[in-house]
Design brief:
The chain has 6 helices and 7 strands, in the order βααββαβαββαβα. The chain is of the alpha/beta class. The protein has one domain: Spore Coat Polysaccharide Biosynthesis Protein SpsA, Chain A (Alpha-Beta Complex), CATH 3.90.550. Strand 5 and strand 6 form a beta hairpin. The longest helix has 20 residues.
């Protein structure tokens, strides 16, 4: 069965979007993250075309603090850097699997549908982010993810290029349209300005 995994953090003041918090304050960053996460879970959780899995960083004894997570299977991310955590998440199941972050406000069901469609013709699908990283990664055979995330320079403009360089030469990849993930105050201002222009 298709799986959709969302990587998220417990929405607590001072524990989420720390770079954004330096620019707009920890409470404002928490409000933005909590609202974005709630919208994302509501938007993607009811769709029966995939199994929705919410992978939380750190302990998650209760669902308190996970707005609108009632349709999601809640699990815990493994330890290690982002590559190790994604590898473990992919390895936990079979069938086409897509993984996204929780700080992409423009992410819609249509993007997830496109990614699964792409996995019908490619081994790997990636959604480039405007900062040089990626907002989505999908694998047709998720247990082959180990090599893909080795030695990737996370949180740098080289993350997508490093991941593409790790592709097995025999594997085909599809790139989706770029989206913005919001890391700091400038990202937030740019996103808001784009919305006001429409």
């Amino acid at each position: 069965m298709r799986r959709l995994i969302v990587f998220a953090k417990v929405p607590r003041v001072g524990a989420v979007k720390t770079r954004l918090a330096r620019d707009i304050g920890s409470v404002a960053a928490w409000v933005w993250y909590r609202r974005t996460l709630a919208t994302l879970l509501h938007r993607l959780g009811r769709d029966r075309r995939w199994r929705p899995i919410l992978a939380i960083a750190g302990p998650h004894r209760h669902r308190i603090g996970y707005p609108r997570a009632q349709f999601w299977v809640v699990s815990r991310q493994s330890r290690g850097d982002l590559g190790r955590r994604m590898t473990a998440a992919f390895a936990g199941g079979k069938g086409p699997t897509v993984l996204v972050g929780s700080d992409i406000p423009d992410l819609a069901s249509s993007h997830i549908i496109q990614s699964f469609q792409a996995l019908g013709r490619s081994q790997v699908v990636l959604g480039p982010a405007t900062d040089g990283g990626f907002w989505l990664v999908g694998l047709r055979h998720p247990r082959r993810s180990g090599r893909l995330f080795r030695a990737v320079r996370w949180s740098t403009p080289f993350a997508l290029a490093d991941t593409l360089a790790n592709l097995d030469p025999r594997d085909s990849a599809t790139l989706l349209a770029p989206l913005a993930d919001l890391d700091d105050g400038n990202d937030l201002r740019t996103w808001r300005a784009r919305g006001d222009a429409h």
